[in-house]
Design a protein that fits this description.
The chain has helices at about 25-30, 35-55, 95-130, 130-145, 150-160, 165-170, 170-195, 200-205, 210-225, 225-250, 260-265, 275-305. The protein has twelve helices and no strands. α8 runs antiparallel to α9 and α10 runs parallel beside α11.
């Protein structure tokens, strides 16, 4: 008859290793690394940014320069030499699609950065100081809110865009979009600052003699900027699609600059006879917008404590 061994005493729990305290940013990064949507979106965005910075890595530009066209090869269709076919001027569509990523992504990033800095900075000031400063900035923002975004951008670009398209190029479109988009960021930042400035750590910093500038930059801004980051990331896809739409309407990016919106506009009249001219730039545009939307959704889920 076998005798069961006596039960072993349970091991005492090990004390936690000392380290940095958990924060919103460390918890967000921990969640993002395990979010499949974020990983897929980040990989797509990385490839698209790499394509915009180094288009020669993705295109056979040595054989077919995107700016070199031959009317004898117009609307040739998909072949071994022209993977996406050729356009109405006989230009290689594949190379032009690759090079078109540069303008679209540049417009999206520049507009998101400008609106984030301007709207976020003004929202920080309005939410922190309140009173007449808040009233003045909020009323100015409401004036811009009253202007429909697409109509306002069309009006601005139709007045100044064509005359300065060659001189300023992308910056005309960026400033037109940023001029109408910063009030949204201001509202979001203002609400976040109003919530943060009443927290105990701000009251303690003020009691210890910290000045307004130090309180804003060291205590309020790091704890209130998360919604602005989320909004700016989501707006990247919106700005990219807005640039394509304005270029499609003829008031955005102008030739000879390569843009997906211009390519789609040139291809619409020949869609039935040469659909690849429209489908491929539209597909790359959709993938780009989807990648930034996926990235923004994942960042929003990670930075919003209510969704944890």
């Amino acid at each position: 008859m076998t005798v069961a061994p006596p039960p072993q005493p349970a091991e005492a729990p090990q004390p936690a290793k000392p380290g940095k305290p958990a924060s919103l940013w460390s918890d967000a990064w921990y969640d993002l690394r395990r979010n499949k949507v974020f990983i897929i979106g980040a990989v797509l965005v990385f490839l698209l940014v790499l394509m915009a910075l180094f288009p020669s890595l993705f295109s056979h530009v040595d054989a077919y320069n995107p700016a070199t066209c031959n009317l004898a090869n117009a609307r040739q269709g998909v072949t071994g030499a022209h993977w996406f076919g050729t356009d109405n001027q006989g230009c290689d569509t594949y190379s032009r699609v690759i090079y078109g990523a540069r303008v679209s992504i540049l417009v999206g990033i520049l507009t998101a950065v400008i609106t984030g800095v301007v709207g976020g900075g003004l929202g920080l000031v309005a939410g922190f100081y309140g009173r007449w400063v808040d009233i003045l900035l909020s009323r100015v923002a409401e004036i811009f809110f009253a202007i429909p975004a697409i109509l306002g951008a069309l009006l601005i670009l139709s007045v100044v865009g064509r005359d300065n398209s060659q001189k300023w190029g992308v910056w005309v479109v960026v400033m037109a979009l940023a001029l109408l988009a910063w009030p949204l960021v201001l509202r979001i930042m203002r609400a976040s600052v109003i919530s943060a400035k009443n927290q105990d750590y701000v009251v303690a910093a003020r009691a210890l003699g910290a000045g307004s500038g130090r309180i804003m930059m060291r205590h309020i801004l790091p704890n209130a900027i998360a919604p602005v980051i989320v909004t700016s990331t989501l707006n990247l896809g919106v700005f990219i699609s807005a640039e394509a739409g304005l270029s499609f309407l003829g008031v955005g990016i102008q030739a000879p600059t390569i843009s997906w919106g211009l390519m789609i506009a040139d291809a619409r009249a020949r869609f039935l006879s040469a659909p690849e001219m429209l489908l491929f730039p539209a597909l790359l545009l959709s993938i780009t917008v989807l990648a930034f939307v996926m990235l923004g959704d994942a960042v929003r889920d990670a930075l919003d404590p209510k969704l944890r």
